[in-house]
Amino acid sequence: MGIWLEGKPLADRIRDQVAREVALAREAKGTVPGIVAVIVGDNPASQSYVRMKEKACRALGLWSEVLRLPAGTTRDVLKARIDELNAADHVDGILVQLPLPPPLDSQEAISWLRPDKDVDGFHPYNLGLLMENRPGLRPCTPTGIVELIKSTGVAIEGSEAAIVGRSMIVGKPLAAMMTNENATVTVCHSRTRDLAQVTSRAGILIAALGKPGFFGPEHVKEGAVVVDVGSNAVSDPAEIRRLFGDDPKREQDLRDKGYTWAGDVHPRVIEKAGWLTPSPGGVGPLTIAFLMKSTLEAYQHRRG
Fold first, then answer.
1. What whole-number percentage of the chain has pLDDT above 90?
2. Are 30-114 and 140-284 in the same CATH fold?
3. Cystine design at 93: which of 236, 246, 295, 300 (Cβ 3.0–4.6 Å)?
């Protein structure tokens, strides 16, 4: 039986560190890091995520603001508002909440950000620094995953790592980070042949496929570190029972919300893995914690 690898203890340590440094900045300079989230439209998941970011900023002493734009916002209007934030000296960090509603182009919008204010680390310049293993603002979720793996005490250097998923948000930047840590990395995806054969060789498995409970014990090497990045809303009672059995909490979720959250990894993998992140409660807390840290770093870099 493996160990549940929860993200909250590490996230709490990162948040405490940020809160201390923000307090020191306020005392020394009379200013604190400032971040603006840009959200277009009314996607419920995006709205919820932005509210969590606002709450985290208040708790840690950062200044934050949300720029809410209607779903019909044009390309030119969005660019003009981002240009204003780029020029605003009191704004240290800008994040564009993804996905943007069509026909807006998410990658184009990210490219409008000043690289030194791109606290999500998705600007092409910052991704280039990552590829060159040079200091810069880093994507928050991949950063959290790497630090969470390190917290197990398992050496990344020399390990074989399989990353299932090739998105620009997780898979691709994470592959670069793990390579920079001297892991031997295989990036898999929905068209990988004999996926279980590839993943079951890996001492470190990161699952970011977006299919609830897809990865079973046959996909996992005995004693591996398994990081489940999946966050899937499951509403089918039969599917919930397949994943969780007769779990009263999941049944209560279904009654109260009409769905429950499930990861990409089946919970029974804990019987074979050395470590497995729960979903929810694994990677999620780290994403926001490292966003707060990234905002602090942007502030420190800009203000010396």
1. 88
2. yes
3. 295
- pLDDT band at 213; cut points 50, 70, 90: very high
Q: What are the structural domain ranges in the chain?
A: 30-114, 140-284
| Tokens matching residue 214 | 């897809």
For residue 144, what are the contacts with CB-CB under 8 A and spacing of at least 6? 7, 10, 11, 283, 286, 287, 289, 290
Q: Under a CB-based contact definition with an 8 Å cutoff, are residues 162 and 206 in contact?
A: yes
User: For residue 274, which amino acid is it?
Assistant: G
Task: List the catalytic residues.
Answer: 53, 97, 120
In this predicted structure, the answer to whether residue 81 has a pLDDT above a threshold of 90 is yes
- Percent of the chain with pLDDT strictly greater than 70: 100
SS3 assignment, position 48 = helix
140-284 maps to CATH 3.40.50.720:
yes
**294 and 138 Cβ atoms separated by less than 8 Å:** yes
- Which residue reads 């840009």 in tokens? 38
CA distance 95 to 84: 14
- Structure tokens of 32? 């604190």
**E strand map for 49-92:** 63-69
pLDDT digits (tens, 9 = 90+) for 17-68: 999 999 999 999 999 999 999 999 988 778 888 899 999 999 999 999 999 9
Beta carbons of 163 and 188 less than 8 angstroms apart: yes
* Burial class of residue 28 in the structure, from the number of CB atoms within 10 Å of its CB (0-12 exposed, 13-18 middle, 19+ buried): exposed
CATH code, 30-114: 3.40.50.10860
Q: Please report, to the nearest 10 degrees, the dihedral formed by the alpha carbons of residues 203, 173, 53, 22 taken in order.
A: 90
As beta bridge partners, residue 38 has 67, 96
- For residue 218 the two structure tokens come to 């046959």
Residue where the block lists tokens 């920079």: 180
